[in-house]
Amino acid sequence: MRFDNKTVLMTGAASGLGRATAIQLAKEGARLSLVDVNSAALEETRQIVLQYAPQAEVFLMTADVADEKAVQDYVNQTVEKYGAIDGFFNNAGVEGKQSPTADYSTEEFQRVLSINLNGVFYGLKYVLGVMQKQGHGSIVNMASVGGIRGVGNQSGYSASKHGVVGLTRNSGIEYGQYGIRVNAVAPGAIMTAMVEGSLKQMGGDKWEEIGREFVSVNPMKRFGKPVEVAYLVAFLLSDQAEFINATLIPIDGGQSYKY
Length: 259
What we know:
By secondary structure, the protein is α/β, with parallel strands linked by helices. It has helices spanning about 15-25, 40-50, 70-80, 105-135, 155-175, 195-205, 205-215, 225-235; strands at about 5-10, 30-35, 60, 85-90, 135-140, 180-185, 250.
């Protein structure tokens, strides 16, 4: 029970990797403060979490991470509710539409960056202030293999995730002296609704065939599972990772190092 008497704040908790991580953290004793723009799916996450961890404390907040005031509010509400923020999973993000860069609309580029990059920055800005006063804390930002190498037809997504990597390294360097660690995870092809949607954009009715081709170049020849990312995030948030800071950890079956 690595998270007994600890509070973890998480964005993007209504589905996918956020939901899987919420379940894992609750099973390990964490008090959860969960944020998402989709209030109905967020409540569904709470119900699922309670099935796995009936005694878990789960506080829900509906917020758009692209709205700085909303981010400040979800941080303040968490502190008011629980008194501290021991861990922060800065997870919310979108893939965006797919098209070559010259055809990628400016509006879509700005939308993706406002959520994936601005939202991460706002979260860091307000949570770091809380953690500095506490004198401790661990933050995990959601990057991607798209923040390590290019991803064709996804200019906004790739640019935003490269930016997340930069923010992670910068913040870890700045705040390590205050007992705060800031790291990022870089998932590859993890089978979530977002990845399924991406495959459908690429392949339409043949998306499953496209998916098989996609993982055929992965050294492990399969999609990752959301719980596998959850295990990594939980480790990085825990005291067992207390000397890991300002780094990016891929979780992609080795694909990003094959090329």
